[in-house]
Amino acid sequence: MNAKLDSGVTTRPVTRQTFDEVLVPTYAPANFVPVRASGLDVWDQEGKHYLDFTSGIAVCSLGHSNPVLNAAVIKQMQTAWHFSNAYTNEPVLRLGLALTEATFADRAFFCNSGAEANEAALKLARKYAHAKFGPHKSRIVSCLSSFHGRTLFTVSVGGQSKYTEGFEPLPQDINHINYNDIESARAAITDDVCAVIVEPIQGEGGVIPGDLAFLKELRELCNKTGALLIFDEVQSGVGRTGALFEYMNIGITPDILTSAKALGNGFPIGAMLTTNEIAQQFNVGAHGTTYGGNPLAATAALTVLDEMSKPGFFDRVKEASARIFANLEQLAVDYPQLFGKVRGKGLLIGLPMAEGYKGKAKDYTKTAEKLGLMLLVAGPDVVRLAPPLVVSDAQIAEADRIMRQAADEFLKAA
Predict the structure, then answer these.
(1) What average pLDDT does the structure give for the chain?
(2) What cofactors does this protein use (predicted)?
(3) For the whole prediction, is pTM greater than 0.85?
C-alpha cells in the first residue's frame, strides 16, 4: 500500500539528483537547475547567472517572464482557466481570427504542442484524401533527418530511425526522401501520396535551410498529384526567421501549416492552420483535444502576436540575426580547426563542428554552459543558437565573448 501523501510535498528540497531518482529518464538535463529567469537572464539554485541563447528550444521568443505576457495571462487566470471544447471562449475566437487574417488560412485547430499539431495535420490529410480520391491515396512523404514530434505517428513520419527503434510495428504508408533532393522528391511523390510534410528549415536535423527550388518543386508535385503540402513551422515560425512564418519569406504557400513553440512563449499551445475546403473533412467528432484552445493558452498566444505586430519587430530580428551571423562567421575564421560554416536563417542558427570535432557539439556547449552561456545542439555535430527574438546588441556581444572563451578552453582540454 502506498504511503499517505505528504502534506509538505510541495516545499521539500529538490536537486538535479531528484530527476535521476523519480523521473522517467527520457532526458539527460544539464547539471544545474534553473529557478528564475527574466528576459535572457537565467539563475540557478546556486545563484549562478546564465545568458540564455536557447529560448527553451526556440520557445520563449519574447524572453522569460515577459511583463506584458505575465499581465495578460494573470488577468485571464483571474477570469477563467478552462471550459473544455463543449464550449468555446472569447480568447480562442480572437486567436483564430488573428491567425486566419494574418496567414493564407481560413481555419485554425488548436492543441497543446507541435507534435499534436502535426498529428492533426497528418490525420486531416489522410481523411481529406480518402474522401476526395479514395483510400488508395494514403501514402505520406517526409524527409530524412526531419523531426515532427514524438507521438507514434509523428515519430514515424520524422526521418530519424533512432527515434523509432523499439516501437515497432510503426504506422504504414510512410516514405522518406532526401532533404533538398529534387530527384528524390520526383521519384517518391506519385498519385498515391496524400501528403508531403516538410520543415522549411530543418531544426533538429542540423539547422539546414530548404533550397527554394526544392520547396517549389514540392509545391508543384503536390499540385500535380493532388497531395497536400504541409509545412511544419513549429520551430521556424512565429517570428524566428524575420517573418511571422517562413513560408511568407519564400513565397510558397502550403495547404496546411503547423505551429507551436514560440506561439505561447512557453505556455503550451499548438495550432494547425488550413483552408476551408480541407478543414471541412474534420467534422464534429473527427478529432479533438481536451485542453486545446483553452482561454489561458489562447491569451498567451494572442499577446505574443500582438507584441510581434508592433512596428519594427521583425526588422530588429533581421538586424540581430545579421550581427550574430557576422560574429559566428568570424569565429569560424578564427577557429577553423573547431568550426565549419554557419548556416540557418533569422535567429535559428547552426554552427557545425569541423571535421576533427564531429560528434563533439554537446561537449562544446557544456564548456560554454560552465562559462554562463546556454546553447543548444542540433544532432551531435551542430551547435544551435536560438536566442529570444528580443536579444540586445550587448547580449549578442557577450555571447560572442563567451563562445570564444569556450573555444579556447575546449581546445585546451581536447
Answers:
(1) 96
(2) pyridoxal 5'-phosphate
(3) yes
